[in-house]
Each structure stands twice: as C-alpha cells, then as structure tokens.
C-alpha cells in the first residue's frame, strides 16, 4: 500500500510519478477528501476539549450547591456531536484506505520511464541460441508426437487452458522443480517451505492481490482463494510481526501450483502451456532491511538466472519500464528464455523489489537495536523459475530430429544417468 504521507506531503510530485506508471490520480478529489479529513480531525479535538471543560463545570456547580443539570445536558449534546464527527472521520479514513489500496507502488529512481513492454530495456544476454540442422518444433508438436502432452483430455476434465502431462515429461517437470529447490536451498541460502494453496482475503490483500486483481483470482464457496503464486502465503508468514534487525534477511522458497483466471488474456497464448489457469512455480521471497533491498534484488535475479545457466539455456534479462511493472513493484527484472519453437524470447521469471508496499499492508516491521519505534521492512519476490515454462524451454532447446529430448547434463543424476527421453 502506498504511504498516504506521499500524497499528503507532495501531491503533485506523487501524481506525476503515478502517471509515469499509467495511473491517473484524481488530485482534486484527493485534496477535497484530505480537507474534510483534517476538518473532522480538528473538530474531534475541539469537541473533546470542550467536553472536558464543561465536565469540570459539573463538579464546580455541585460544590457550590448549584443546579448542574444544564452542564449534564451540554455534555450529552457535545458527546452526540463528537460521535457524529468520529463517524464522519472514520468514513473518510475508509475512503482514503480505498484509494491507497488501488494505487500502485512508486518506481525507484533509475527505472526507465515508459508506457509498455516496448519501452523495457535489455541489460544483459547469456548464451547463444542453438543452430538446428532441422526445423525445430515447438513444445506442443513435440508433446503430441510422443503422447507427452494432452490438452484434449485436460479439456474434458477442466476446460481450456489446462494440460495433462504424462510419462517421462511429467517426470521431467517434477525433476525441474526438485532441481530448482535443491539449488536455492543448498547453494543460494533459501529455506524451503510447504505452504497452503488456499488463503483468506487478508493474505491476498496483504500481498497486493486484492482488491486490485479480484477478477483474476479463483475463489471457493467459503471465500478462500487459490493462490496465484507462493509469494502470497510466504510473505504473509510475517504479517503483523515485529522482527529484530538480526533476523533479516529472511529468504524463503516454495514449490506450489499457481491458479489464475488470466482475465483479459482472451485469445492470447491459447496454444500449449505458455499461459495456463494452473501452472507451477518455484518462488523466492525475501524480507530485508530497507538498506539491503536494492542489492537483494540483484542477488535474487542472479539466483533465477543461475538455474538457466546450469541448464545451459540461452536467456536475456530486461528491466521493466514504469508502465509495464506489476502493481506492487518498485523495480522489476524479467528474465526471458529462448524458445526455438517460437523463435523468440519468452518470460520465465519476474523478480521484483516491492520496497515497503506489501509490508505496510501486512504490518511487517522490524526494530533497530535501541530504537522504540519499529520501521517497515522491505519485501522482494521472484520466480526461480516458472516450472512449466522451464519444461517448455528444455523440450525445445534440447530436442532432436526424431522428436526425442536430450536430458540436460545437470539433470541426468535425477534420471539415473539416462541421457535421452523418448
């Protein structure tokens, strides 16, 4: 949640920064709301002081043997005015909260200003796309040829945007997730978690999914939400918590299914497994001291890139412009993997520094030694990696002319030394 003080202290500067993110703040409406908020805040203080003075008059009248009833009546009348002022103030506070809940985070200095993905900036590229001596197939053709992927059976069970995996490719997906978890826990310092796949609305709001993205969420009849990413339960493990400085950084990882309605993506990426209602990710989450979040983002992105380097699959890393970043992000790196079947790079990881945006919603704080007042922590999240898209990348980059898949060297121990999937 955006700090309301940013709106109160410099509304024009904040509105300009939000406009660069594609969000138009109604400055006049905010100023009118803020004027009313201040009015009723001051009115409460005045009425409370007035009631205190009149209350003292009751005792003084009684001491003199005078009739104190007029003062009792006045106290009652002031109390009624005060209750109404409190009611109006609370209503305004709720309106303020609604505005800030729908307002995106501000971009950090240095993030390129732009409108959409065309204004993103490539910052590095790794590996050379393989030169095939045959026409490379995409993952759908490879999967259908070998009876590894079956969208028709999935449609019978669940409808569109689902896929049934079978045989060695189902195992390959499982192995990829295991490899990612092992790498992040054994080499990168993350602690593995197994978390619920259903969460309440408080957790969804805390991580920034609600109310903004309600249309993209699957909800059960008892108002539990299927998680869109493990970021939601992992970050909320530290909601309403005051940490010590020495507790940070907290580095968590989890492998979970993810569920999204993909609202607004009708007709986009309908072929294959690129955009599904159910997919898997290995997620990385960090909770850090504010002074460490910039470097933590660089480290997290390197961890995600390291998976692709180990698999020897080409990729590029881009920094998203202000208009293409996610709602809660202050800076984001996207990692795009090379897919020969599409002859283009496609996103496989998004790593973001959310600064104190989620922490303010969740009340995730820390206290410096010797300080009384706690501060908001910074949170970060990143895919390490999207498992299904990594499966696609392995299938397409390691395909052979006969449709078989050469197993990447780093994964062969998980297959008992097997070198090729048929």
Tally of extended strands?
Answer: 17
Average pLDDT, rounded to a whole number, is 95
Sum up the overall morphology in one term.
elongated
SSE string, helix = H, strand = E? HHHHEHEHEHEEHEHEEEHEEEHEEEHEE
Distance between the termini: 50 Å
Q: Which blocks of ≥5 consecutive residues have pLDDT under 50?
A: none
Strand content: 15-25%
Strand order of the largest sheet: 1-10-11-12-15-9-8-4
Topology:
Elements: H1 4-9, H2 11-19, H3 27-63, H4 69-102, E1 121-126, H5 139-145, E2 149-150, H6 151-158, E3 164-165, H7 167-186, E4 191-192, E5 198-199, H8 201-206, E6 225-226, H9 231-236, E7 241-244, E8 250-259, E9 278-288, H10 293-311, E10 315-319, E11 331-339, E12 344-353, H11 357-362, E13 364-367, E14 375-376, E15 378-386, H12 387-397, E16 405-406, E17 420-421
Helix pairs in contact: 3-4, 7-12
Describe this protein's structure.
The chain is 40% helix and 20% strand. Helix 3 (27-63) runs antiparallel to helix 4 and helix 7 (167-186) crosses helix 12 (387-397). The chain has 422 residues and is of the alpha+beta class. The protein has twelve helices and 17 strands. The strands form five sheets. An eight-stranded mixed beta sheet has the order 1-10-11-12-15-9-8-4.
